[in-house]
Design brief:
Cytochrome Bc1 Complex, Chain A, domain 1, 5-stranded mixed sheet, disordered C terminus, Pept_M16_N, Metalloenz_LuxS/M16
């Protein structure tokens, strides 16, 4: 197990996190959502702690805690007074190694997970749209499955599915402990040895490559749902940043694509907002751009927009693509480039005022196999991106053969439908 410690003595608090390099990417068909279901069950007890006691004890320490599951990883955290660090390390090590609960606890909690899916996905048209977009954009990659899981898989999931997933992936070599705050590294190391060091070592399961096949033509899907406005999103397959220490040409492109996203939508009044949402001939109420830079699987560059009154999703789609084509044709000025770089770097620096953000960055860099100073390296590399590189990627990655388009076609709203009540659940579940 890896231990990462970063002292920050500005306040007498500490953040303690455990990151496990396992997420929905590591699931197999028929058990989608099991990584997230396990995250819920990690709050349901050990041989020495009854269900819910973990959260009660953290609260009694004056702390707050939660967890999260993504496609690439699962994480657990507590923020506590620095003097109570040992208490939460003991608790977290216990549930990492000895997660245990009766079948009846699982049967209750899987209903919470299903209600979470209903509230956050099935009742939200755009969430459903993105779920189907990912299923269309990715064929071989497990990214085509939703993190929360398909409802049919949740219906069929068993307690042993979750236990087996824990036994397989929650091994020391597949996890890291991150501690940031008012701490002494040597003391944290001693505590980690005391509480995590005794967990038996086991091999991390072999991961087979699931390479995404080359796309050979535009993919389109239309989704009908009760909504007030249409919505369109364009997802282009792009390279991810593989290494900050041994860069490849595709890494340079990934960085340039990140700068391109900032040129289009990186500050108030950026290109997409000016061109699509302002003036008497505006076509959109909103428009955005984003690039998937890091990830254990293939990444997408996404453009999206909401048509203005009297405009169509097709007009917004054309306008979005026209702005990328404009960059490919005419490039960007040095002044514009410097502005977006300055804003991006400032955002990266300011977010480090938070202990939680510092810990999350260190954990995510470890998950991706990046060096722990990846933040500084990334800033340096992005500063070095040239206007010519931005123009080149705008010309290279936005053809039809790399594109999946998803369009939300709004249907009449049911005004008699009562809002869904909040899902039941205990503190500590993913939110």
């Amino acid at each position: 197990m890896t231990l990462i410690v970063k002292p920050d003595r500005r306040a007498p608090t500490a953040v303690h996190m455990v990151w496990v390099r396992v997420g929905s990417l590591d699931e197999v068909d028929g058990t989608s959502g099991v990584a997230h279901a396990l995250e819920h069950m990690m709050f349901k007890g050990t041989p020495t702690l009854p269900p819910g006691e973990f959260s009660r004890r953290v609260a009694a320490l004056g702390g707050r805690e939660n967890a999260f599951t993504t496609r690439d990883y699962t994480g657990y955290y507590q923020q506590i007074p620095a003097g109570r660090l040992e208490d939460v390390m003991k608790l977290e090590a216990d549930r990492f190694a000895h997660n245990q609960w009766p079948d009846e606890e699982f049967r209750k909690e899987i209903e919470v997970v299903k209600e979470e899916r209903r509230m956050r996905t099935e009742d939200v048209p755009r969430s459903l749209l993105y779920e189907q977009l990912n299923a269309a954009a990715f064929i071989a990659s497990p990214y085509h499955r939703p993190v929360v899981g398909w409802m049919s898989d949740l219906d069929a999931m068993t307690p042993d599915d979750v236990r087996d997933f824990h036994r397989r992936w929650y091994v020391p070599a597949n996890a890291t402990v991150v501690v940031v705050g008012d701490v002494e590294p040597a003391q944290v190391h001693r505590l980690a040895e005391k509480y995590y060091g005794g967990i038996p070592a086991r091999a991390v399961p072999a991961r087979k490559p699931r390479t995404e096949p080359v796309q050979a033509g535009i993919r389109r899907l239309e989704f009908k749902a009760p909504a007030e406005q249409a919505y369109v999103t364009l997802a282009f397959r792009v390279p991810q940043l593989a290494s900050l220490t041994a860069p490849q040409p595709s890494d340079e492109d990934a960085l340039a694509l990140t700068v391109l996203a900032a040129v289009l939508d990186g500050y108030e009044g950026a290109r997409l907002a000016r061109a699509l949402t302002q003036g008497p001939d505006r076509v959109a109420d909103s428009a955005g751009a984003g690039n998937g830079l890091f990830g254990r699987g293939p990444q997408l560059f996404v453009l999206d927009g909401v048509p203005a009154q009297g405009k169509t999703a097709e007009q917004v789609e054309a306008a979005l693509r026209a702005q990328v084509a404009l960059v490919a044709r005419e490039g960007v000025s040095e002044a514009e480039l410097n502005r977006v770089k300055t804003q991006w770097v400032a955002g990266e620096v300011y977010k480090l005022d938070s202990l939680m953000n510092q810990a999350r960055e260190l954990g995510s860099y470890w998950i991706q196999g990046q060096p722990l100073d990846a933040g500084e390296r990334l800033i340096q590399r992005l500063r070095a991106v040239t206007a010519q590189q931005v123009q080149a990627v705008a010309a290279r990655y936005f053809g039809d053969d790399q594109l999946t388009v998803a369009t939300l076609r709004p249907q009449p709203l049911d005004k008699n439908r009562a809002p869904r009540p909040a899902a039941p659940g205990a503190a500590g579940e993913m939110r």
